[in-house]
Amino acid sequence: MEKKLVSVKTVVAIGIGAALMFVLMRFVALPSGVPNTNLNLGIAVLSLFAAIFGPLAGLLIGFIGHTLTDLTWGGVWWSWVIADAVFGLAIGIFWKLYKIEEGEFGIKQAVIFNVIQITANILAWVVIAPTLDILIYQEPSDKVFLQGLVAASLNVVVILVLGTLLAFGYSKTRTKAGSLKVE
User: Fold this and answer.
1) Beta bridge partners of residue 62, listed in sequence order
2) pLDDT tens-digit profile of 65-105?
3) How confident is the model at residue 183 (pLDDT cuts 50, 70, 90)?
4) Where are the alpha helices (H) located in 94-177, listed in sequence order?
């Protein structure tokens, strides 16, 4: 039997995750006070789906969800789309460590998840997005690094609270391996 590169479950998760991310980014975003930078609840969905379904799902959900959001605002800001895709990829690379699907997401896994999400946010929003803003759009560096720092900070808090709660909640719905006994 031939092993599939991507399961149907992952493809469905990519579609649902991208749609949820789009809706939350487009209709539930709260202004931060820094131009074009919002408190974004969609990042919690992206982090959860990447943590459950892995790097490909994280990459595609971030890319598709952010692209759809930007398209409805009038134009795609590719530097930030790429940053969201890289963020999803980075969270997803470590998906096996979180043990969410196994029903074992506890304090240790929450700490691992949050150390990784903080590092991924810094990479995406303090390094990648501002650098690409400067290279692609010739934006002023002081502006884009401020936006990146604010975006990273807000994302860290949203994922620390909402993303972690979602991971705990979803993990509790999963059956732990070896928890069923024959009578």
Assistant:
1) none
2) 999 999 999 899 999 999 999 999 999 999 999 999 999 99
3) low
4) 95-98, 107-121, 129-137, 141-158, 164-172
Q: Is residue 133 within 8 Å of residue 71, measured between CB atoms? A: no
How far is Cα 101 from Cα 136, in angstroms, rounded to an integer? 39
Beta bridge partners of 38: 31
Gap between the Cα atoms of 150 and 33, Å rounded: 9
Could you give phi then psi for residue 39, rounded to 5 degrees? Answer: -75, 125
CA dihedral 70, 73, 79, 81 (to 10 degrees): -10
Dist. CA 22–CA 29, nearest whole Å: 10
List the one residue out of 149, 83, 95 whose CA is nearest residue 120: 83
CA terminus-to-terminus distance, the chain: 34
Query: What pTM does this model have?
Result: 0.92
Rounded (10°) CA dihedral 23, 27, 30, 33 = 110
User: What is the tens place of the pLDDT at every residue in 105-134?
Assistant: 999 999 999 999 999 999 999 999 999 999
DSSP one-letter code for 33: S
CATH among 3.40.190.10, 1.10.1760.20, 3.40.50.300, 1.10.150.20 for 8-172: 1.10.1760.20
Query: Domain residues of the chain, as ranges?
Result: 8-172
Extract the tokens encoding 114: 């949050």
